[in-house]
Amino acid sequence: MFDNPIFIPGPTNVPEAIRRAMNVPMEDQRSPKFPELTLPLFADLKKVFKTETGQVFMFPGSGTGGWEAAITNTLSPGDKVLASRFGQFSHLWIDLCERQGMDVIAIDVDWGEGVPLEEYARVLEDDKNHEIKAVLACQNETATGVTSDIAGVRKVMDDAGHPAMLYVDGVSSIASIDFRMDEWGVDLAVSGSQKGFMMPTGLAIVGVSQKALEASKSAKCNRCFFSFDDMIKTNKDGYFPYTPATTQFYGLRAALDMLLAEGLDNVFARHNRMAEGVRRAVIDGWGFKLAAKEPKWYSDTVSAIYVPEGFDAAQVISIAYQRYGLSYGAGLTKVAGKVFRIGHLGLISEIQLLSGIAGAEMAMRDIGIPVEAGSGVAAAEEHYRQMAAPIAVAAAS
Prior knowledge:
3-stranded antiparallel beta sheet
């Protein structure tokens, strides 16, 4: 059986170096040696989140656990929260807040757009008594392949002179798309190990500002497993209040080494290059539309692709898996059956993505979608050739 790459927006393909790093015997998580592993992880995660003043926590869990940690540690039932809904994951974050008893001002936006800065500005300027305690922004909406302007959210908050905390869902953006926690004044940032960190699912990684840590002292939501207080007491010495995901930490060590050795700016540029090849395949090659309505919304970690009217995107996904052993992301809720998604985050190469584009072409042709064989591959190939690093060519003898 061939080990085919998966083309979903997480879990991503795990590099062999990370897989090998996690193949370790079990150890005593309370031994005197354990902090030699964990304390450098906390320090290097701060480099990825781009924070010097914040604190980063690692909880066993997925991004959803990170959402819950961020909300329950810093807010109280009844608190007003400003959020926008433009995809399945921005919706689920709103749903979590509502289940915790928050009073959510949810702005509905067309799926294919992102955080509505003008609407946020209007609501914040009208909130003269500063009743809104939290502003939520999903940096990368995985369901539609839309990236929002977090620096713009901070600007409208500052322009309104509003003291609310800024919460960012960076699950499918941090370690893949530019993110600047301190510069953008982000108070809570949520990520997960299975996306840009190139690892299996299992770690919810949460960045917390000093302002948010102060807010956690008076927040009234119940928490136990996700308690910041319990983590703070033990993390300072490199330990945890309960059994942590020790093998994951070894994978994270390898992942951070890879990211920092490449350089974060190079990581972001690589993701843009990979993503643009897929976009060229979709738009120039196939003549299809992305779910993201304008280039300013295009995501560098996932592309959601509309199939032509009268065809079912779920069939494309099913045929690709059954016949060619390839996995693509499904359309969710409002766009179910209308789009399939190609994930292009983590460590994935031009050649791997060309194979993913080719597989999608074959699956679409198999169900009768009028796609010319090789059209998407050719468009992506030209982009990758043009963007490839120049190589020295020996002169003819």
